[in-house]
From TrEMBL:
Coiled-coil residue windows: 313-354, 443-470
Bias-annotated ranges (Basic and acidic residues): 632-650
Keyword Acetylation attributed: no
Keywords: Coiled coil
Rad50/SbcC-type AAA domain sequence ranges: 6-204
Name of the protein in its database record: AAA family ATPase
Annotated spans, Disordered: 238-261, 632-656
Organism from which the protein derives: Vreelandella lionensis
One Pfam match: AAA_23
C-alpha cells in the first residue's frame, strides 16, 4: 500500500482542510515529517490509520476525540486518503461520529459515522463504489484488500511513537498471526487441521470397530470369542450325528411311500377293471339303434340304382320347359321390333323437315365470329387495364402500409428508449450490490465464527467455574494436609522429648542442655507418633500440594482460553460493527436481499443488452424502410399513369361495337350453342337413317328366332314321352312299391357318411372294451385288493419322523453356520482394525508432529514461519550489526517455552561482547529502537521477495531516533536510503536536527493558535 494524497479536515490540530500530495515528494521518497512538539506530526499517521481502519495509530484516542477544537462548527471532521495497492488505485473517505449544527434552526444534531470506498480509474477518477456508507463494511473491505488488520498494520507498516517495540517483543502466538497474514501460510494451518481431522476420524473408526466386534458377538448371543470357539468345538459333532439320523428317517419314509404307491397302483387297476365292465354294458345298450342305421344304408343302396332313369326323366322335363320359355320370348321380341320399325320411319320424316333450317343457322355463325374477334381485342385491353389498376392499387397500399410501419418503428424506438433509461437507472442503483454481497458474505462468516466463539466461551466459563470450585476445594484439602503433617511432626518431636526424659538421671548431664538438674522433664500425654507416620503425612501433604498445582494450572489454562476467546470475540465484534449486536437472522436476511439484488442486477444487465440490441435493430430497419419508401413513391405514380392510359383505349374500342356485341363471353356462349344446334340437326338426320335401317334388320332376325323356337318345343315333347315310359318300367322292377317309397329311401352323401361312421365307431369301441377287459382279467387273476388306509398311515408316520429329524438338524446346522459366519466376520473385523491401527500410527504420528505435540511443540505452520523468520532475521541482523557497531544480532530462540505456551517464534539478541544470547526485552531504549527498526526493514525485504506476499511498500517511523548516537544515526539513515532505492516510501517523524540536515525532502508541520498547517518542502527528484 502506497499513499498518494491525504486530505484532513478539522482533524486533530488541523482546523481547516489540509492536503498532502505524497506524489510531490518524488518516486519512492525518503522524507522527514518535521515540526514543533504538538504541531500535529503524529496526527498525519493517525489520519492515515483512521482512514484505513477507523482507529488512530496508538489506538489511545477515540476517533470522536480527533475533532479539532479550533475548527469552524459548520466544518465536518473527515479524512480522505487516495492510495495505490498493487496495480489499482482506491480512495477512502471517513467521517467520525460528531456533533454538527442543525441545517435549520438552532442547536446541534448528531452526525453519524460513515465511510465510502471507491476504486479509481488510471486517471484518478472514481470508477466503482465498493462501499456506500457503512463504516464496518469499509473496514472489512480494506482489511481484505490490504491483508492486515489495524494492529498488524501498526506493527509492520507504521511504527507509532512508543509502540515500535511491540513487534520486537511479541510472543510466538502473536507473531504467528502477523507472519501468517504477511506470508499467506494458512495452507500449512489447513494441512495441520486436515491431519488432525484425519487422525481423529481414524481414531473414531478404531473405536467404532471395537464396538462393531462387540456387536458381532452380541448378535450371536456370545460373551466372548473364547465362548465362540468352545461352542463351535462342541456343536460340530452334534450336527454330523443329527444329519445321520435325518438320512435314516428319510430312507424309512421313502420305503413306506414306495409301498403305499404300489398299493395305490394295484387299487387303481381293480377300479379300472370295474369301470371297463360298466362301460361295456352301457355300450351294448346302443345295438338296436346301430341295426336300424344298417337297414337305412341298404335301402339307400337300392335307391341309388334307380338314380340314372330318374335323372333322364328330370332332364327331359327341364328341356321342354326351357324350349317353351324361348318360344314365348321370341314371340314377344317380334312384336317389339315391329313397333320399333314404325317409330324409326316416323323419326326419319321429322329429321327431313328440320334439315331445311341449316343455311340460315350457318350465316348467323359467320357474323358471330367477326364480333368475337373484336370483342377479344376489347377483353385484352380490359385485362391489361385491370392488371395495371391492380398493380397501382397494390403499390399504393404497400406505400401506405410501409409508412404506417415506419411510424410504428419510431414509436417502438421511443418506448425502448424510455424502458432503457429506466433499466440503466436501476442498474446504476444496483451498482454496489456485488461488492456489498461479497462484504456481507465475509460478515456472515465472521458472525457465525463469533457465535461459535460465544458458545465455546460460555462452555469455558462453565468449566472455569467448575475448576474454580475444584481449586477452592483442593486449597482446603491442602491446608488440612499441611496442618495434619505439622501436627504429626510436632507430636513426633514431643514423643522424642518424652523418650529422652525417661533416660535422664539425677546429677547426670542432660544430653541436650548439659544441666545436672532436671526440674520439669517432658511427659508424653498422647500416643507416640512414629517417623513413618510423619513421612506418610508429609507424602499426603505433597500429593495435596501437587493436586493444588494441577488445579491452579487447569484454572489458569481455562482463564487463558477465555481471554483468548474474549479477544477474538472483541476482534470479530469490532470487524462486525453494528452487525455484532443484530440477530444472525437479520444478517442472513440482508445477505439474501443483496443476493437477490445481484441476481436482479445481472437480469437488468441482460435486459439492457437485449433492449440496446433491439433498438439498434429498429434503427437499421427504420433506415432500410425509409430508403424503400423513397424508391416506392415514383413507382406508384408510374403505375397510376399506365392504368389511366389503358382505360382510355378500352373505352374507344367499346364504343365501336354494338351494345350486344361488347361481351365476348356471352357471344362465345351463343356461338357455341349455335354450333351445337347445327351439329345436333346433322346428327339427328344421320341417326334417323341409321335407326330405320337397324330396326328393319332386327325385325327380320326376330321372325327367324320365332320359327326356330317352335321347332325345339316339338322335339322336347317327344323326348319327354320316351323318358317317362323308361322310368315307369325301372320303378316296377325295383323293391319300391311307388315313387314315394323311392323318395323316402334317398340319402345324401353327408347322411350316408354319418350313418356309416356311427356303425363303424360302435363296432370299434366294442372291440376295444372287450380287449382291455380281457387284459385286466389276466393281470388280476391271482391278486386281492390292498389295505390302502394302513399303508397311507404308515407313510405319514415316517414323514413326520423325517420332518422332526430335519428340523433338529436344521436348527443345529443353522446355529453352526451362524457361528462360522461370526468367526469369519470377526477375522475380517480384526484385519480391518489392524489396518486402521496401522493407518492411525501413520496419520496420528503426522498429526502430532504437524500440530506440535512432540519434541519442541512446534507446529508445521510455526516451523515454516520459523524458516521465514530466519530469513527475516538474516536481513535484520545485517542492519542491526551495522547500527550497533558489530555488537548485536537477532536470533530465533531454539529452546521450547515452558508449559503449554506456544514456542518456535521467540526472539533473542546475540551479544558478541558477552558471547551469550539474552531476551530482546533486556535491550535499552536506543538498542530496542535499532532492533525494532532492523526487524521492520528486514521483514519488508523478505515479504517483498516472496511471491504472493503482502506488499509492504511504505514504512512510517514515529520518533526513536533521538535515542541513537551520531554513528548509529548515520548508519540508520544510510540503511533507510538503501531501502528507499529499492522502491519503498519511507517517512520519519523526528525532532533530531541532524535528520533535517541530511533529509532535504520533508513535510513541514506548522502550529498556530488558529490550527496547524502542512507544507511539502525540499528538492524533488
Amino acid at each position: 500500500m502506497t499513499p498518494l494524497t491525504l486530505t484532513m479536515q478539522a482533524f486533530g490540530p488541523f482546523a481547516g482542510s489540509e492536503t498532502i500530495d505524497f506524489t510531490a515528494l518524488g518516486r519512492s521518497p525518503l522524507f522527514l515529517i518535521n515540526g514543533p512538539t504538538g504541531a500535529g506530526k503524529s496526527s498525519i499517521l493517525d489520519a492515515i490509520c483512521f482512514a484505513l481502519y477507523g482507529q488512530t495509530t496508538g489506538n489511545e484516542r477515540d476517533a470522536v476525540q480527533m475533532r479539532c477544537d479550533q475548527a469552524d462548527a459548520s466544518l465536518l471532521t473527515e479524512v480522505s486518503l487516495t492510495f495505490r495497492l498493487r496495480d489499482a488505485m482506491y480512495r477512502v473517505r471517513r467521517v467520525p461520529l460528531q456533533e454538527r449544527p442543525k441545517a435549520s434552526g438552532e442547536g446541534t444534531t448528531t452526525q453519524t459515522a460513515e465511510a465510502q470506498l471507491w476504486r479509481l480509474t488510471p486517471e484518478g477518477e472514481e470508477d466503482e463504489c465498493l462501499v456506500a456508507r457503512k463504516v464496518t463494511d469499509a473496514t472489512a473491505e480494506l482489511q481484505a484488500l490490504i491483508g492486515l488488520d489495524a494492529n498488524q498494520f501498526r506493527q509492520v507498516m507504521v511504527l507509532p511513537q512508543g509502540k515500535f517495540r511491540e513487534l520486537l517483543l511479541a510472543g510466538s502466538k502473536e507473531r504467528e498471526v502477523i507472519f501468517s497474514q504477511l506470508f499467506q501460510t494458512q495452507v500449512f494451518q489447513r494441512i495441520e487441521e486436515r491431519l488432525r481431522t484425519q487422525a481423529n476420524q481414524i481414531e473414531r473408526a478404531v473405536s467404532d470397530h471395537r464396538q462393531h466386534i462387540n456387536g458381532i458377538l452380541a448378535g450371536g448371543e456370545l460373551e466372548s470369542e473364547a465362548a465362540l470357539a468352545q461352542e463351535l468345538e462342541s456343536l460340530t459333532p452334534q450336527v454330523g450325528q443329527s444329519r445321520e439320523r435325518f438320512e435314516t428317517a428319510q430312507q424309512q419314509r421313502r420305503r413306506a411311500e414306495q409301498q403305499r404307491d404300489e398299493a395305490l397302483a394295484l387299487q387303481r387297476q381293480f377300479e379300472a377293471r370295474d369301470a371297463l365292465a360298466a362301460d361295456k354294458a352301457r355300450h351294448l345298450e346302443q345295438r338296436g339303434e346301430v341295426e336300424n342305421s344298417q337297414l337305412r344304408l341298404a335301402q339307400s343302396a337300392h335307391a341309388q340304382a334307380l338314380r340314372p332313369q330318374k335323372a333322364t326323366l328330370d332332364q327331359a322335363q327341364q328341356a321342354l320347359a326351357t324350349a317353351q320359355a324361348e318360344q314365348h320370348q321370341a314371340h314377344a321380341a317380334l312384336t317389339t321390333q315391329r313397333t320399333s320399325a314404325e317409330q324409326a320411319q316416323q323419326a326419319l320424316e321429322s329429321a327431313r323437315q328440320r334439315q331445311a333450317e341449316l343455311p340460315e343457322l350457318r350465316e348467323r355463325h359467320r357474323q358471330l365470329g367477326e364480333f368475337i374477334q373484336k370483342s377479344q381485342q376489347l377483353s385484352e385491353l380490359q385485362r391489361h387495364f385491370q392488371t395495371s389498376q391492380t398493380a397501382w392499387q397494390q403499390a399504393d397500399e404497400a406505400l401506405k402500409r410501409d409508412e404506417q410501419q415506419l411510424d410504428g418503428i419510431r414509436q417502438q424506438g421511443e418506448a425502448i428508449g424510455v424502458h432503457l433509461e429506466r433499466l440503466q437507472s436501476e442498474f446504476q442503483q444496483l451498482a454496489s450490490a456485488p461488492a456489498e454481497l461479497s462484504r456481507h458474505h465475509h460478515l456472515l462468516a465472521l458472525r457465525q465464527e463469533l457465535d461459535e466463539l460465544t458458545q465455546q466461551r460460555q462452555a469455558l466459563i462453565t468449566q472455569q467455574q467448575q475448576a474454580k470450585n475444584a481449586l477452592s476445594h483442593q486449597q482446603g484439602e491442602t491446608e488440612r494436609a499441611e496442618r495434619y503433617a505439622t501436627e504429626q511432626e510436632m507430636r513426633w518431636h514431643q514423643g522424642q522429648a518424652a523418650l529422652l526424659a525417661l533416660t535422664l538421671e539425677q546429677d547426670a548431664p542432660c544430653p541436650v542442655c548439659g544441666s545436672l538438674e532436671h526440674p520439669a522433664p517432658a511427659i508424653n500425654r498422647a500416643e507416640l507418633v512414629t517417623q513413618a507416620q510423619v513421612e506418610d503425612a508429609r507424602t499426603v501433604q505433597e500429593q495435596a500440594r501437587q493436586a493444588l498445582q494441577r488445579a491452579e494450572r487447569h484454572h489458569h489454562q481455562l482463564t487463558q482460553h477465555i481471554d483468548s476467546h474474549t479477544e477474538q470475540a472483541q476482534r470479530l465484534t469490532q470487524q462486525l460493527g453494528e452487525w455484532a449486536s443484530q440477530p444472525l437472522l437479520a444478517l442472513q436476511q440482508a445477505y439474501e436481499n443483496l443476493r437477490h439484488q445481484v441476481q436482479r442486477r445481472e437480469q437488468v444487465e441482460v435486459e439492457i443488452r437485449q433492449q440496446t440490441a433491439a433498438r439498434e435493430s429498429l434503427r437499421r430497419e427504420w433506415g432500410t424502410l425509409d430508403k424503400q419508401l423513397k424508391a416506392q413513391r415514383p413507382e406508384v405514380e408510374k403505375a397510376k399513369e399506365s392504368a389511366l392510359r389503358l382505360e382510355s383505349q378500352r373505352d374507344q374500342l367499346s364504343q365501336s361495337l354494338p351494345e350486344d356485341a361488347r361481351y365476348p363471353e356471352a357471344m362465345r356462349q351463343t356461338l357455341a350453342e349455335l354450333e351445337q344446334h347445327i351439329a345436333q340437326l346433322e346428327k339427328a338426320w344421320e341417326s334417323a337413317q341409321q335407326a330405320l335401317s337397324t330396326s328393319q334388320t332386327q325385325l327380320a332376325r326376330a321372325e327367324e328366332q320365332l320359327r326356330g323356337a317352335n321347332e325345339r318345343v316339338e322335339r322336347s315333347e317327344q323326348s319327354l314321352q320316351q323318358a317317362r315310359a323308361e322310368w315307369q318300367a325301372a320303378l316296377q322292377a325295383s323293391p319300391f312299391g311307388d315313387e314315394a317309397e323311392y323318395q323316402a329311401a334317398q340319402l345324401n352323401d353327408a347322411q350316408r357318411q354319418e350313418l356309416t361312421h356311427r356303425v363303424e365307431a360302435y363296432q370299434r369301441r366294442l372291440a376295444e372294451l372287450e380287449g382291455a377287459l380281457e387284459n385286466y382279467q389276466t393281470q388280476l387273476a391271482e391278486k386281492t385288493p390292498p389295505d390302502l388306509a394302513a399303508l397311507t398311515a404308515q407313510a405319514e408316520s415316517a414323514q413326520a419322523q423325517e420332518n422332526s429329524q430335519l428340523e433338529t438338524w436344521r436348527q443345529l446346522d443353522g446355529r453352526l453356520t451362524t457361528l462360522q459366519n461370526i468367526h469369519q466376520k470377526l477375522a475380517a473385523a480384526h484385519a480391518s482394525q489392524a489396518e486402521l491401527e496401522a493407518q492411525y500410527q501413520l496419520w496420528g504420528t503426522l498429526s502430532d508432529v504437524a500440530n506440535g505435540r512432540t519434541g519442541h511443540r512446534i507446529s508445521l505452520q510455526r516451523f515454516v514461519l520459523g524458516v521465514l523468520l530466519d530469513d527475516v532475521l538474516i536481513q535484520a541482523s545485517e542492519r542491526l550489526v551495522r547500527m550497533s557497531r558489530g555488537r548485536y544480532q537477532l536470533v530465533r530462540r531454539e529452546d521450547p517455552s515452558k508449559g503449554n505456551k506456544a514456542s518456535g517464534l521467540e526472539l533473542d539478541v546475540a551479544d558478541t561482547y558477552t558471547g551469550k544470547n539474552r531476551p530482546v526485552a533486556t535491550l535499552s531504549g536506543g538498542e530496542s529502537f535499532m532492533a525494532a527498526l532492523s526487524l521492520a526493514l528486514g521483514l519488508s525485504d523478505v515479504v517483498q521477495a516472496y511471491a504472493g506476499g503482502i506488499q509492504l511498500n511504505t514504512l512510517f517511523i514515529d520518533e526513536g531516533f533521538g535515542s541513537l548516537d551520531q554513528d548509529a544515526l548515520d548508519q540508520a539513515i544510510a540503511m533507510l536510503s538503501e531501502l528507499q532505492m529499492s522502491g519503498r516510501m519511507i517517512g520519519i517523524i523526528s525532532h533530531v536536527s541532524e535528520l533535517k540536515e541530511q533529509m532535504p525532502v520533508r513535510i513541514e508541520v506548522s502550529a498556530s493558535r488558529h490550527g496547524s498547517s502542512v507544507a511539502v518542502k525540499g528538492a524533488l527528484s
